[in-house]
Amino acid sequence: MLAGLICMCVDSSSGNEFFEWQGALMMLFLADISMKGMESISGDYERGDYCHQWQGVECINHHVDKIHFTAFPHGNFNLRALPHSTTSICIRNCKQTFEIQTRSLPQKLVFLSLILNKIWGRVDLTTLPPVLTTALLQRNKLTGPIKLTNLPESLYTLNLQYNNIQQEVVWYDNLPKTIRRIKLAMNGIGAVRAVNSANRAKRSIFPKMRKRNIH
Question: What is the pTM of this model?
C-alpha cells in the first residue's frame, strides 16, 4: 500500500537524504497498517510528513522520538524499521501479532511498552537496547528460554508476567544496580537462581515469586 510513498521519500534530488531515509523507515514501520488505520493517524498521510500532526508520532527537531498507540487494531507495526532516534515505544492493546526481535529495536530506546497484545517468539533479553530503563512486555505470547544476564546497565523495570515462558530455572547474574523489579509471575517458571551465589539479588526484586524459589 505504501510502496509509492517509500519511493517518493528516498528521491535524492531533494538534497536532504537523512530525512528522506527517515521517512522511508517510517513508511516501512507503517507498511502493514490498513487504509482506515492510516486515515485515523493523519488526514494527509500521503504527504509523508509524519512529524506534523500525526497521531501517535512525536518528533524533536524533525527526528522521530516517541511512538505511542493504544487500542489501535489496524495491522502490525514493524518495530524493526523505526529510526534509531526513537526513545519511547508504547503500543498497548493493539492486537499485534508479530514475532519479537529485541536485537532490532532502536538503540536509543529508553522506554518500551507492548502490553496486552499477541506478540510471540523467544524474547532475548541479552540484546535489549543499551540505554533501556523500562520494558513492559506482559500479557503477550512470548516464550523462553530466557536468562537474566547482560541486561542494560540502566534497566529499572522488566515485566514479563502473563506470557508462555516454560522454564524450570531462570538464571541471573550481575543484575544492573538500577534494577528494582523483575516480574516473572504467571508463566511456567519454577525458580530463579544466581549463577554466582555472591551476586544474589534481593528477593523483593522478583515480586509474586515464592521466596523458596528465589536463590
Answer: 0.90
